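Deliverable D5.2: sample structural annotation.
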Amino acid sequence: MTAEFVMDLDDGMTEYFREIADEMVSRFGISRAEAVARINERYRDAEISAYPDLMCHEFPEFWSYGLYYYPDASGRLPTGDEDDDVGYDFARLRVRPAPAKGSPFWTLEE
């Protein structure tokens, strides 16, 4: 565990999750504290291997979309790849609610 993430991560995976949080902050305009809380809530019970875990086969932006949005009516999410996401209607995606403030997932101050 680190001061920000509630999962047991090695240095490489800690950096990978920080990159996911960075993507969420820049793409969605949320605070770093909220981004980390979303990551903590989703992955709190996940068994994450040392870097590079299997999830590293995708870029951090790929995971950021699933942490922030619900899939569309066809079960799809943007991927973060500009070519794949051409014509994607982001306005139609529903935003997942952030974890409740004061929950154990909020490890950073806003």
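Annotation notes: Helices lie at 11-28, 32-43, 60-68. The radius of gyration is 14 Å.
The annotation will be released with the project's public dataset once the embargo ends.
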